[in-house]
Automatic annotation (TrEMBL):
<keyword id="KW-0560">Oxidoreductase</keyword>
<feature type="domain" description="Mannitol dehydrogenase C-terminal">
    <location>
        <begin position="198"/>
        <end position="339"/>
    </location>
</feature>
<dbReference type="InterPro" id="IPR013118">
    <property type="entry name" value="Mannitol_DH_C"/>
</dbReference>
<dbReference type="InterPro" id="IPR013131">
    <property type="entry name" value="Mannitol_DH_N"/>
</dbReference>
<dbReference type="InterPro" id="IPR000669">
    <property type="entry name" value="Mannitol_DH"/>
</dbReference>
<feature type="binding site">
    <location>
        <begin position="3"/>
        <end position="14"/>
    </location>
    <ligand>
        <name>NAD(+)</name>
    </ligand>
</feature>
<comment type="similarity">
    <text>Belongs to the mannitol dehydrogenase family.</text>
</comment>
<dbReference type="Pfam" id="PF01232">
    <property type="entry name" value="Mannitol_dh"/>
</dbReference>
<dbReference type="GO" id="GO:0008926">
    <property type="term" value="F:mannitol-1-phosphate 5-dehydrogenase activity"/>
</dbReference>
<dbReference type="InterPro" id="IPR008927">
    <property type="entry name" value="6-PGluconate_DH-like_C_sf"/>
</dbReference>
<feature type="domain" description="Mannitol dehydrogenase N-terminal">
    <location>
        <begin position="1"/>
        <end position="183"/>
    </location>
</feature>
<protein>
    <recommendedName>
        <fullName>Mannitol-1-phosphate 5-dehydrogenase</fullName>
        <ecNumber>1.1.1.17</ecNumber>
    </recommendedName>
</protein>
<dbReference type="InterPro" id="IPR023028">
    <property type="entry name" value="Mannitol_1_phos_5_DH"/>
</dbReference>
<dbReference type="InterPro" id="IPR036291">
    <property type="entry name" value="NAD(P)-bd_dom_sf"/>
</dbReference>
<dbReference type="InterPro" id="IPR023027">
    <property type="entry name" value="Mannitol_DH_CS"/>
</dbReference>
<keyword id="KW-0520">NAD</keyword>
<dbReference type="InterPro" id="IPR013328">
    <property type="entry name" value="6PGD_dom2"/>
</dbReference>
């Protein structure tokens, strides 16, 4: 069985590639990073190390790489042969991936083997971005042959600093949740949870793990802290984190069937994950992509808008927007772009147009 996975980065190698390999797939990674692709083709295996006291190591074998910028023929062959296609490239890159697979999906249309295409990105219903782009170009695509299940992926994989560029250190915890109804065929993946309704799971993950993460990153950077585990030792940070997570807990328990106790237990587990001293996760990684993270459907603004509209506590999330605006990561191109937009049009117009915030919330944030 063959898997084609776009994005041979941290989560691609450290999580998705490993799960696919554990399920018996030979995994071909497609990426624009020549160094990683060359190493995959040279070594055909890599090691996943678990960041824990006496953590285990696993070898992922039978892997290869395609340089998408230089090997269009190999990419075509891989799309035609794939039994599953996954991505972990960043949600903004999905339109580029869609464009690169559409011609080959057209050619594949006579092939009646079921093909699931799944985006594994931190965004609400990211596979739909691929699905819409594909159906726009191939409106008569048989959705009984090509399925587009949405998914939620959770495993903290920091930027890697290993001697071997393919090896990857990951936290012990992992969760990959997939929309069951959209999955085609009987060949379900082991190590994955299938659910009939994905939205509660994806929002609980995004608005607890990822909102918690940015609370640590954006506030932590104002205190000149560099890593997540270091920030978790600072009481000001953990107090702020708790306030933010109490507010997103209100959103989640109001909107979905999670009880307060369940959400509290979920939060406690995540706080323990953030404290992992066997991982060094840079706050600049956690906060990067600040424009995306201030988008109306993302981890800060979506719960904030809801809580504000419902008259529920949202002070910490408002403060979090203020810290995000101060994020000072010169390596994040989105930060320079955000600063430029604010300089050109002013803060009120930026927050209104980019994040969809109403004027009274903007006034709160500016206080
Ligand atoms: N790292 C984590 O802890 C984690 C956990 C869950 C989800 N995610 C999500 O997974 C996605 C990837 O994150 P990551 O941490 O692995 O990032 P990463 O930067 O390590 O990996 C992304 C990879 O995509 C490649 N890429 C970029 N443009 C491409 C293109 N046009 N074609 C092919 N490949 C391309 C990059 O070269 C890189 O290797 C993001 O959406 C992120 O939100 C990350
Ligand atoms: O990948 P991003 O930029 O959406 O978010 C940064 C981190 O919060 C994220 O990568 C987490 O480590 C991950 O979502 C844990 O599952």
């Amino acid at each position: 069985m063959k898997a084609l996975h776009f994005g041979a980065g941290n989560i691609g190698r450290g999580f998705i590639g490993k799960v696919l390999s554990d399920n018996g797939y030979s995994v071909t990674f497609a990426d624009v990073n020549k160094e990683i692709i060359d190493a995959l083709n040279r070594d055909t295996s890599y090691t996943v190390n678990i960041a824990a006291e006496n953590g285990d190591s696993y070898t992922v074998e039978n892997v290869s790489g395609i340089n998408t910028a230089e090997q269009p023929d190999k990419l075509k062959e891989a799309v035609l042969e794939a039994d599953i296609i996954t991505t972990a490239v960043g949600v903004n890159i999905l339109p580029i991936i869609a464009k690169s697979i559409i011609p080959h999906l057209k050619e594949r249309s006579e092939d009646h083997r079921p093909l699931n295409i799944i985006a594994c990105e931190n965004a609400v219903m990211a596979t739909n971005v691929l699905k819409e782009a594909v159906l726009n170009e191939i409106p008569d695509l048989d959705e009984n042959i090509v399925g587009f299940p949405n998914s939620a992926v959770d495993r903290i994989v920091p930027i890697q600093t290993n001697e071997n560029i393919l090896d990857v250190k990951v936290e012990p915890f992992f969760e990959w949740v997939i929309e069951e109804n959209a999955w085609l065929g009987s060949n379900k993946l082991d190590g994955v949870t299938y659910v009939s309704e994905l939205m509660p799971y994806i929002e609980r993950k995004l608005f607890t793990v990822n909102t918690g993460h940015v609370a640590i990153a954006y506030f932590g950077r104002t205190l000149n802290i560099e890593t997540v585990s270091e920030a978790m030792q600072n009481e000001e940070v953990t107090n702020f984190l708790n306030k933010v997570l109490n507010e997103t807990a209100l959103y989640l328990t109001n909107k979905y069937d999670f009880s307060e106790e369940e959400q509290r237990a979920y939060i406690e587990k995540i706080i323990e994950r953030f404290k992992n001293t066997h991982l060094s996760d840079d706050l600049n990684r956690v906060g990067r992509g600040v424009l995306r993270k201030l988008g109306p459907n993302d981890r800060i603004i979506k719960p904030l808008l809801y809580l504000h509209r419902e008259g529920l506590e949202h002070h910490a999330l408002s403060k979090l927007v203020g810290y995000a605006l101060k994020f000072d990561n010169t390596e994040d191109p989105e930060q320079a772009e955000m600063n430029k937009q604010i300089e050109d049009k002013g803060l009120d117009a930026f927050l209104s147009e980019h994040s969809g915030l109403p004027s009274d919330l903007i006034a709160d944030i500016k206080q």
